[in-house]
Amino acid sequence: MSTFVLDTGALIAVDRRSRDVLSTLHSAFADGDSVLVPAGVIGQAWRKPGRQALLSRVLRRCDEIPLDGSAARLAGQLCGQTGTNDVIDASVAVAAANARSRDNEVVVLTSDGDDMRTLVSTRTLVSTLNSITRIVEV
After folding, report:
1. What are the counts of helices (DSSP H) followed by strands (DSSP E) for the chain?
2. Which positions ≥6 away from 41 have C-beta within 8 Å?
3. pLDDT at residue 131, rounded to an integer
4. Residue pair 84/124 in contact by the 8 Å Cβ criterion
5. Closest Cα to residue 138, out of 117, 119, 110, 114?
6. Rounded to two decimals, what is the model's pTM?
7. What is the 3-class SS of 79-92, one letter each residue?
């Protein structure tokens, strides 16, 4: 079983009706894979609910991951270690690390592969994430 973790770029791609992203998600849902979306990611992409019907339908099929104090602290720590400043991207890396401890494969769908690779390669997460985690740019 695989787990997909979506960043804001992936949600924007859904909103823009990207065939590649929609096809990937359709396959994931059909295969019974988990699709996770950190709450902060939703906040970054959610702008005009009346015009985001497709995004709303996709999100109903996803598991929303809260950004609690523990995850927020780890995300902040990752930003400090990597010199990045997007705590929401870091929360995606944290969600991937947590999923990796449960599942065989974790796939991060992101529009910012370079930053995501930097975040998931920090010493804080390396013990949890390994080569089975894939970063897929959307």
Report:
1. 8, 5
2. 6, 7, 8, 11, 88, 91, 92
3. 42
4. no
5. 110
6. 0.90
7. HHHHCCCCHHHHHH
